Amino acid sequence: MKVLVPVKRVIDYNINVRVKADRSGVDLASVKMSMNPFDEIAVEEAVRLKEMGTASEVVVVSIGVKQAAETLRTALAMGADRAILIEAASDVHQDIEPLAVAKLLKAVVDAEQPGLVIAGKQAIDNDMNATGQMLAALLGWGQATFANEVVIEGDSARVTREVDGGLQTVRVKLPAIVTADLRLNEPRYASLPNIMKAKKKPLEEKTAADYGVDIKPRLQVVETAEPAGRKAGVRVGSVDELIAKLKDEAGVI
Questions:
Q1: What are the residues whose beta carbons fall under 8 Å from the beta carbon of 54, sequence distance 6 or more?
Q2: What are the DSSP calls for 21-38, one per residue?
Q3: Which residue of 10, 23, 59, 78 sits 20 to 30 Å from the alpha carbon of 51, by its own alpha carbon?
Q4: Structure confidence by residue, pLDDT tens digits, 88-118
Q5: Chain segment 166-185, per-residue pLDDT in tens
Q6: Top-level class of domain 2-250
Q7: Which of 47, 41, 56 is nearest to 115 (CA)?
Q8: Cβ contact 42:78 at 8 Å
Q9: Domain boundaries in the chain?
Q10: Is the CB of residue 148 less than 8 Å from the CB of residue 160?
Q11: Cβ–Cβ < 8 Å for 61, 86
């Protein structure tokens, strides 16, 4: 079974994000970029399926700027077999919308014919949480989102997923879409020998035009602003003073 894993290049989660002075978006100049953490979890799960003998090949695909090739090389160093880069933007500030990404991924799925697509549940830059669901709808496949355990059983997958009330176990017929949640696994660090080997693994470069997909934006960012700063806390001297502040100042009682 072939497993396809979409990965996205985003600002590293350790970086303090800054908003542009004109509030048109986030400043990406000279900022460290890395693989979306949820996508990294998805790559790890696909590689583990291959190591177990369940998957025969792991293919990773990224859609965006040419620099996303570095992100794909990271996935190859983790254990993926080959990569596909779809160059759909020349400006790093241009984010390809989920519907366009889903349409491009559908074209890749039609060409590659994987038995399973594992994606991160969302990207940490826009938090859309939509691409996996849209891809499932376009393909007409079953989906299991927010997975924290995936077990392949014959022609189906048993997925334990996180819901508001706890855990829910579902069975989905393959081929299917699975989106990875935080507790699915802990991604491995790529070793130096594997990083060197990744440079020789195949990385195919395509464009959105090659797949005949219109990626013209349908959404417009009106303004980007930092969240309001939190007020400093106040130490009170007694329970009566606390109750008074909660009643008169906070208005919660």
A1: 1, 152
A2: TTSSSB--TT--EEE-HH
A3: 10
A4: 988 888 889 999 999 999 999 999 999 999 9
A5: 999 999 999 999 999 999 99
A6: alpha beta
A7: 56
A8: no
A9: 2-250
A10: yes
A11: yes
Taking residue 178's Cβ as centre, other Cβ atoms within 10 Å add up to 28
> 60, 75 in Cβ contact below 8 A?
yes
Residue written as tokens 């983790």? Answer: 78
Judged against a pLDDT cut of 90, whether residue 151 lies above it is answered with yes
Beta strands in the chain (DSSP E): 2-7, 9-11, 33-35, 57-64, 82-87, 116-120, 142-153, 156-163, 166-173, 176-180, 203-207
Q: Which residue has the tokens 């979890």?
A: 41
Q: Dig out the tokens for 23 from the structure.
A: 């509030």
- Measured in whole angstroms, the distance separating CA 144 from the mean position of its chain's CA atoms is 15
What's the DSSP call for residue 208? G
Tell me how far CA of residue 201 lies from CA of 20, 194, 195, in angstroms: 38, 10, 10
Percent of the chain with pLDDT over 90: 74
- Do residues 55 and 114 touch, judged by C-beta distance below 8 A? no
Kindly state the average pLDDT of the residues 192-217. 94
